[in-house]
Amino acid sequence: MKFKNLLIPIAISVVLPLVIRSEYWFYILTLASVFSILALGLNIVMGLCGQISLGHAAFWGIGAYTSGILLVKLQVPFIVALVAGGIMSAVFGVLLGIPSLKVRNVYLAITTIGFNFIVNAVMNNWITLTGGPDGLPNIPPPSFGPLTFRTMVGKYAVIVTILLLFVWGFSRFKDSRVGRALQAIKDDELAASHSGINVHYYKVLAFTMSAFVTGVGGALYASFIEYISPDTFAFASSPVLLSMLLVGGIGSTWGPVIGAFLLEILSEGLRFLRDYYMAIYGLLVVIMALRMPQGLAGLFSMLGEKIRASMRQHRKAPAGKEV
Amino acid sequence: MATILETKDLTKRFGGLTALDHVTIKIEEGEIRGLIGPNGSGKSTFINCVTGHYLDTTGDIIFRGEQINRCKAHVRTSLGMARTFQASRLFEEMTVKQNVVVGTHYRTKTGVFGGIFGGKAVQNEERTVFAEAEKWLDFVGYEGTGDELAGSLAHGPRRLVEIARALASQPQFIMLDEPAAGMNPSEKVALMDIIRRIRDLGITVLLIEHDMKLVMNVCDKISVLNFGAKIAEGTPEQVQNDPQVIEAYLGEVTTNA
Question: Which of A180, A186, A194 sits opposite B98 (nearest CB)?
Answer without folding.
Answer: A180
